[in-house]
């Protein structure tokens, strides 16, 4: 499938891409970044765009963008803006990744980003600790069910509980009818009726025997 065929509205996607690329949010104007790619995917969906491929058929980059758009990206201080007043940029990571690091580890990876961005570097790798935290956050995010899955799971649980309750009621009803029948057979009236039927049967047999003689 050609790249543009993946999108339900290729023109909208190109329009959003151009806007994000020219802007200074998520990176320098005219430069591309992972953050800008994430913003583009999110904005495209926000404006009504979708994909012609299922989640299973998505490319790795599409899956990553889809995952990133669900994560809460921020600086170590919790800000949604990485660009500083002097033009340098702070480290930008998912909230879950920051939570995996100590204050010292946060400071180190952030300082590395700021110092390298002062030299004009756009892409600055994370420290070892930050890389590890980022990977763990991604795994946790990927393992978490999305809203559709949760809703589907809750629906199945509810259905199972309903079926269990229905089966239980039917079983109780059957047991009740069985016990009722047993109690009726042991009641005084039932015993008297049985005795009467027995006497009548014996009397009938005796009369038939007399006739034969």
UniProtKB/TrEMBL annotation:
<feature type="region of interest" description="Disordered">
    <location>
        <begin position="1"/>
        <end position="213"/>
    </location>
</feature>
<feature type="compositionally biased region" description="Basic residues">
    <location>
        <begin position="158"/>
        <end position="168"/>
    </location>
</feature>
<feature type="compositionally biased region" description="Basic and acidic residues">
    <location>
        <begin position="169"/>
        <end position="178"/>
    </location>
</feature>
<feature type="compositionally biased region" description="Basic and acidic residues">
    <location>
        <begin position="82"/>
        <end position="119"/>
    </location>
</feature>
<feature type="compositionally biased region" description="Basic and acidic residues">
    <location>
        <begin position="138"/>
        <end position="157"/>
    </location>
</feature>
<protein>
    <recommendedName>
        <fullName>DUF5872 domain-containing protein</fullName>
    </recommendedName>
</protein>
<feature type="compositionally biased region" description="Basic and acidic residues">
    <location>
        <begin position="54"/>
        <end position="75"/>
    </location>
</feature>
<feature type="compositionally biased region" description="Basic and acidic residues">
    <location>
        <begin position="1"/>
        <end position="27"/>
    </location>
</feature>
